[in-house]
Each structure stands twice: as structure tokens, then as C-alpha cells.
Model the fold of this input.
Amino acid sequence: MEKENSIMPLFYKITLFFLTLSGFGQMPIFKRYYIADIPGLGWLANFHITHLMHYIFAGIFISLVVYSSLDFIIFRIDSARITKIIIIKIIIYLGLIITGILMIIKNFSGTPFSPNFIILLALSHFLFCILLLFFLGYHLTKKFKT
Amino acid sequence: MTARISRRAFLKGSVTIAGAMAASAPVARAAKAIGKDKKEHIATLIDISKCIGCEECVYACQKANQAKYPNPEKPFPKMYPKRVPIEDWSEKKDVTDRLTPYNWLYIQNATAIVNNEEIELTIPRRCMHCDNPPCVKLCPWGAAQQEDNGLSKINSDICLGGSKCKNVCPWDIPQRQTGTGLYLDLLPSFAGNGVMYKCDRCYNRLEKGKVPACIEACSENVQIIGKKSDILKKAHTLAKKINGYIYGEYENGGTNTIYVSPVPFDKLNNSIKKGKGKPHLGKAKDSMALGNNIAKAMLIAPIAGIAAIAGKFYRASKENK
Ligand code: SF4
Ligand code: SF4
Ligand code: SF4
Done:
């Protein structure tokens, strides 16, 4: 278990880093703010590449979340304390995954989502991402303090 | 070291894994069904051989869409960093030899040899109204929108002018006007840069049962509009009759603008002027295809998670024995 306990958070960290990076890459900001000019980061200005990257890391993220959830239900639910922090994390992860999956479906030809629903999806996916960043920031500062 | 589990946990684990497997099946079915029952698109057929280049369609488009054109506020807000380009067409509204925020349709000229004779061809160019438009699908805010009938348009009330739609469009169609739109009310110096404009298929005329202004104005009946399946049939019949060529049926995975020409399109593409606001007539691969194929492959993601936990569960139950 020890090995897994140290590897899983690392997997999550790497996946969330690339998901956030490629997610922000969906907005036209990396070129404007010279980030794509840094040698080796030119691909951040290529929307097709960041789009594909976002999909690939979203796939990895979903596998991780499914794994952790089942792991929790099977092995740890009896002994674990379900804290407020865990509930917030679950809500944010679920929000990101559900809005993300709907956005993936939207990208297929002929999906029947109305333009207003698509705006709502885009905004809520973005909002969940901001909540996640706040959550991770809060978590990190707390960790440093202790 | 592996986790050890009790008999009760064993039963619970088995049920949980079986439940998770069962839950992933409808997801796979839903993904298969995506796009199967879409409403038929409307499309246009553009018979290049009929066009005489009179530009009546261009002026009709400008007249019909006048009210949708930008009225930028000047001076423009200072933008940071300095590299952000100001794109101002408000003093060049009468430019008609390329696409601009004030000109959504223009006539491209080409020369070609037909039956050993050099001929001039004129080609009306505007948004192709792709079947699965990347400008719409990749817009970060949903400002670029597609209607059920296949037409795509940019909502000028919410577009921030980041130009991503132009960047991902295989023909670089949308054109930007700085100093207008929602970005002025947000952080005008740091995010956004105006509004993107392009042909919106005269959606408001279509809603009233009228045909688009460019089609109505053309005395040569260069364009016809109708159900995509009918338009494709007509395009193929015409191409057969004139021994001609088709463009737009497969480009970018399929579009709702079907050109028929007596000359191969690669020859036309070599002859036309291309560049800013002047789209090509060359190859355009389906820009959404790779992403959507990866998306289908992503169905494996939950299954991979379930498989991994099943492995752990198996190891734990074996150790328990
Ligand atoms: S499409 Fe018709 S109106 Fe437009 S330039 Fe050609 S002939 Fe003239
Ligand atoms: S041609 Fe370009 S602007 Fe028009 S629908 Fe296709 S991707 Fe969008
Ligand atoms: S369909 Fe309407 S908006 Fe598009 S080019 Fe024709 S007149 Fe202009």
C-alpha cells in the first residue's frame, strides 16, 4: 500500500498539471503572453495539439478517479472519515468530469445541444477548473503551514 | 504489500466492480449513437462556370447585413502586451477584394485552360459552413454557434475576438474588428480584442423563409440552396454533365458549400490569389477527426480504472486465502 500511497498522488499531480495547462491552452493566451515563445513551449499556441493533449490527460484523469473511487468503496470506506474537504473534492472532480464529457460529446458532428447550453457548459467547466485551482492552492498553503 | 480484505469486503468488492462494469456499458452505447439522428443540413451549390464576377452578390450581402456590422468605439483601449495587433477595418468598409468584418463574401479570380482556350473564372468565396465546424466546436466560450440546419454564426454579443476560430478554420475565414464587443466591459487591456465576423448564412432571412441575400441578388443563378442530400445529387449530376470537379463535399470532413467547376480545383488553387482574407481552394483534412477518434478511444478510461482495481482486489483476496 505504501508504494501505491506515494505513487497515486504523483499521478494525480502530473495529470492535473497537464490538464490545467492544456485547458488554459484552449484560450488564446499563451501566444499573447509570450509563454509559447519560450523555447520548447511553442506547441502551447497550437490549439489542435492542446486540444488533443487535454483529451488524453482527461482520459487518464477519469481512469484515476474511477480507480480511487472504487478503491475507496472496496477497501477504505469502513475506516475512513468523510471530511468536508473530501466532499468538496468529489464535487469539483465530478463537476469537471461531467461537464468535460458533455463537451467532448458536443464536439462530435450533429450533437443536439443548444447554443445556450454549450455556453453554460463552457462556463461551468471553466468555473470548476477555477474552483479546483483555489482548492489546490488552499491545500498547498495549509500543507506548508503545517 | 497488498491490502487484506474480509469476506464481507470481498462480497462488497465483487458487487462494486460488477456494478462499475455494468455502468460503463450504457456510456459506450451512448457514444456509438452520437450524431446518428442529426437533422439534415441545408447546403448551397455554387456553379462556378455560371459566375460572371459582377459582384452583385457581394453588394447584396453588405446591404442585407449592414445592421450586423461593427461600430467600434475609438480610441481603442491600450492593449498589453504591445504585440497584440489592432485590427481596424472601420475606415476601409468598401474593401471588396477580400474578406473583412465588413465584407463576408468576395469574388476570387482565376485563369484556366479549358478546351485549349484560356478562360477567366470568378469564384464567390465565403464561409463554407462546415458539417462539424472547428470554429464553433473549439470556441472557448460558445460564442461561435451552429444551428440544427448546419449554418454557423458568431454571436457578436459574446465573442471576445481572440481569433481562435480563425486560427482553427482551415480557410481562415472569420475576420476581426478591434474596439467592439463584450471585451470592452471586461479587461479590455489584458484579454480579448474585439469581435470576429463572417457569413452567417443570412440566418435571419432563412428564419423568415427568404433565401440568403447573395443568392437572391445573382442574375446568373450561380447558387442554389436546399437540403444537403438534394444539393449533393445536383452537384454530382452537374459535374458529370460538364465533366467537372467538386469541392466542399469532403474538405474538412464535409461542408455545406459545394462548388462545381469545369477545371480541377488544384489548378484553380494555383491560380487564385491567396493570403490574408483570401482563402485557398486546396486540400483541407478533417480537423476535428483526430480529437473525436481519441474521444472514442477514451471510452476505455473508466474500464482501465475498473481493471486496475479488479487487479488489486484479486491480489488482496488471494492473499487473504
Ligand atoms: S455569384 Fe452571381 S452575383 Fe455573384 S459575382 Fe457571380 S454572377 Fe455576380
Ligand atoms: S469554413 Fe471556417 S469559419 Fe466557416 S464553418 Fe468552417 S471552420 Fe467555421
Ligand atoms: S449567405 Fe448572407 S451573409 Fe453569407 S455571404 Fe450570402 S449574403 Fe452574405
Observations:
- Chain B has one domain: 3-319.
